[in-house]
From TrEMBL:
SUPFAM superfamilies: all-alpha NTP pyrophosphatases (SSF101386). It comes from the Bacteria. It comes from Streptomyces alanosinicus. This is NTP pyrophosphohydrolase MazG putative catalytic core domain-containing protein.
Amino acid sequence: MTDQDTSGTTAPPSLWPAIDDLYSRLEATRAHAGTEGLLLRVLKLSEEVGEVAEAVIGTTGQNPRKGVTHTWEDVQAELCDVVITALVALRTLTPETREVFERHLQRVRERPLGPTG
């Protein structure tokens, strides 16, 4: 799913329609329904976060048996997978994904960064 920009090149899809599309595609092939399916989708986040850790370890060569096995671009891609997986999980909880996320983001932005009081 991509959009055509004015220069004739293909632009990447915007975030929220892409999340809705991924959610719909995953729903169409879901093996587990109900609470179990929801929990498995949320648990997928743990797997993706583990892949970020693996990529960081591989980028820094911290596993002496393997050495350097990843790049910082790999870490970036894995972080993107975490974000996408989290947004799809949120979409599984509510069709108001964008509104819920943006309200929460605004609350986070308003938090003080340092100790208060």
